[in-house]
Amino acid sequence: MTLTTIDAFHAAQSTDERAICDALRSAIDRGLPDAESKIWHRNPVWFLESNPIVGYSKLKDCIRLMFWSGADFDEPSLKPGTGKFKDASIRYTSVEQVNVSDLARWLEKSRMIQWDYKNIYKRKGQLERLV
What's the CATH number of domain 6-112, 3.40.30.10, 3.90.1150.200, 3.10.150.10, 2.30.30.100? Predict the structure, then answer.
């Protein structure tokens, strides 16, 4: 089944996972009110000027919140990805783990620290810092 909306993505989750997703979506919408949100590569993702900023996905045992430029946020709770990109993420297994003040701070940093993912293919995998 292909999920084409964020609402459909949420509806496909268990009750506990849906609570996490709802809390994340609410905080992201508050923190990035001018961002475009949509399902991208099967997951909810928010974009600023067509550049992916933040999104979440369902993993086997958790919901993973990922910031595309999060490795440069200097936030110990966000674990950097393992590849050559600048992503970092945190995993949640219960809604109580979602710290809205941390999330608000990370969302503010996501505006100030951005790598240009939207043009990564044009640059043959090379990232450039936007802000």
Answer: 3.90.1150.200
